[in-house]
Amino acid sequence: ITDKLAALPPDSNYFSLEFFPPKTQHGFANLHARLSRMAQALRPLFVNVTWGAGGSTSAKSLALAELTQRSLQLTTCLHLTCTNMSRRLVDDALEQAKALGVRNILALRGDPPRSDEYRDDSGDQEALEADDSNKDFMWAVDLVRYIRKQYGDYFCVGVAGYPEGHSDQSHPEHQSVGHDMPYLVEKAAAGADFIMTQLFYDVEAYTRYERRLREHESGLFKTIPIIPGLMPVQSYQILRRTTKLSHAALPPDILKRLEAVKGDDEAVKRVGVDIITEAVETMKSIPNPGPRGFHFYTLNLEKVVTQILERSSLIPPATPIITMPYSNGGPDHAI
Ligand code: FAD
């Protein structure tokens, strides 16, 4: 990802798309067809493949990464969590990612580490103690350090950032940007190459967050790519649920516009496209030390994100095919 960013003009824009592995063969086949269409029509700089906390989707995530990286030749960023799963699974995931040609990992913690009481109740204590990653991996920074130790610079490593604070189930209270900051500093100092953010709708909060990072006294965030995470509005119910889960605020004007049409699913999508397109336009104008990126949580859906990308002119031109008249391959032979 960082190599691709270095090759872009500094004042350009780019975007990435996130997908999760479907549960069934049928869902996988559908997503395969959709991804092929989206890859050709939208040309994202890279795509993300999510990882189920605790390794719950490990085989399916790797299968999806194989499809995106190998079959569709899309630069792929595999998410990887590190808590509540065996160290062997972390090692296997990294080895398999490498074998597939995946060069990018989003290093995450996942759910808070299970408590000792939980582990005492869960059967073969000796096996768990020998293999449980909780001793090695408590926080995402542990995974960043581990990847750097085991693989040097082979992987481009991203980490999560939270423009509106962080909701951590192991802490009773919603955490603030200020509380998270020292830990984000640790992740950057441990070798993170880019920051990708939690979804948000409050563009002012994001702008403040980005400025705070850029001006941070450590100097670690001066030029690091910070990629804002945006979730297209698919329905009023999904919006309410996801913003509640991620503790993303819905600014009153946005809520008002969506509530006015909440009974009409198509209108909600239309207004949602307006809202996200406006957010992209606003963020394009924030001064940035390099190309300005946008990450879209697609929920594996195609239409709404396509409309947003078209409206905000984020789709890069197709690589021109040079045709050679009367070459060996005939008049239409392309190189
Ligand atoms: P950390 O950076 O470790 O932070 C976790 C919390 O602990 C924070 O509140 C931080 O302030 C605090 N903290 C960190 N270090 C310390 C320390 N040393 N001492 C005390 N407190 C500390 N989850 C998945 O399961 N699969 C995914 O694919 C996935 N993708 C994601 C993509 C993005 C862009 C984002 C933003 C989140 C994603 N998540 C995913 C969710 C993520 O796993 C959770 O938000 C998780 O609770 C925290 O992960 P983290 O990497 O931010 O953890």
Description:
The protein has 335 residues and is an alpha/beta fold. 44% of the residues lie in helices and 13% in strands. It has 13 helices and 8 strands. It has helices at 2-6, 25-42, 58-71, 87-100, 116-120, 125-131, 140-151, 177-189, 203-214, 236-246, 252-259, 265-284, 303-311; strands at residues 13-19, 46-49, 76-81, 104-108, 156-161, 194-199, 226-230, 292-297. It has an 8-stranded parallel beta barrel with strand order 1-2-3-4-5-6-7-8, surrounded by 5 helices. The longest helix is centred in the C-terminal third of the chain and has 20 residues, at 265-284. It starts with a helix and ends in a 24-residue tail after the last helix. The model is unreliable at 117-124 and 327-335 (pLDDT under 50). Bound molecules: flavin-adenine dinucleotide.
**Termini Cα gap:** 26 Å
Gyration radius over CA? 21 Å
For the report, how would you describe the main beta sheet?
Answer: 8 strands, parallel, barrel
DSSP helix fraction: 40-55%
Please give the order of strands in the largest beta sheet: 1-2-3-4-5-6-7-8
Oligomer: single chain
Number of strands: 8
Helical element count? 13
- Portion of residues in beta strands equals 5-15%
- Poorly predicted segments: 117-124, 327-335
> What is the H-and-E element order?
HEHEHEHEHHHEHEHEHHHEH
Shape: globular
Q: Roughly what is the average pLDDT, rounded to an integer?
A: 91
Structural class per helix/strand content?
alpha/beta
Attached small molecules: flavin-adenine dinucleotide
